[in-house]
Design brief:
This protein is α/β, with parallel strands linked by helices. The chain folds into two domains: 202 residues, Rossmann fold, CATH 3.40.50.720; 89 residues, Alpha-Beta Complex (UDP-galactose 4-epimerase, domain 1). It has ten helices and 13 strands. The strands form four sheets. It has a seven-stranded parallel β-sheet, with helices on both faces. It has a two-stranded parallel ribbon with strand order 7-10. Strands 8-13 form a two-stranded parallel ribbon. Helix 1 crosses helix 7.
Amino acid sequence: MKKVLVLGAGGFIGGHLVTHLKSLGYWVRGVDQKRHEYKKNDADEFIIADLREYSSVNLVIDDTIDEVYQLAADMGGAEFVFSGNNDADIMHNSAIINLHVCDVCVKKKIKKVFYSSSACIYPEHNQMDSNNPNCEESTAYPANPDSDYGWEKLLSERVYLAYKRNKNLDVKIARFHNIFGPLGTWNGGREKAPAAICRKVIESNDKIDIFGDGCQTRSFLYIDECIEGIMKLMNSDFSGPVNIGSDEMVTINKLVEIACSFENKKLEINHIEGPLGVNGRNSDNNLIFKELNWKPSKPLKDGLHKTYNWIKEQV
């Protein structure tokens, strides 16, 4: 029986990943500093630990583990990442976790490590045109992310790749593009755009507030397809970094329109000032299709409807 470790198992993607790995018959250890907020964790063993402490990482990664899935990070939506108030914590907390993970994985001779990077590593200047953003993997350098969150993710990518070159660590790196779905944060300031918009539409009967003019563009990938992409990468000979995301790009205004359609709501959009990030971002899926013969197959509307219904239950 394959034994795997999911770091960040109390989070949105980590929780879904644990469930999927269990469905494959793996023995799974989950680790996080908190338990999952919305579901009972399916891991065979769940350990509460602060992965910023080397002793904790050294404890949970033992030599019986075959694969490590590293998703633990200090993160959130635009209100958290772009406020400017959390940059030091984001840089310190996430970077030190990854430094510890790389070191311990080499010492414990872990066979394979997955690292979840982000589309936020891409240069700001390639994402100024909302209609034609360029997030091809090869454009990551010269580096110019628009946030310290992106800089930390890029730094950690380089740490993993350095350990691959110098220490023979078998790493797989994916750059996630706005993963969403049920069982994710939907309020409190750390939620991302799909969850925030679904919540606002559910709670309102007249108007909702949206940051900016709503013309900024993004693509959003449903959680089930994200997990599928992770497994395709882990079961391949390709290391990445590679995008895991959707190339169905929409404006934020369009995202509101789709959410309103689920209950035929007619809401006025009140455009307000707030943290925005880049003008446009879309997953370039040419490399993942070439290397892994994979691309997302489900339309945004389908996943958003499932997410909307789940958030409505929470509200």
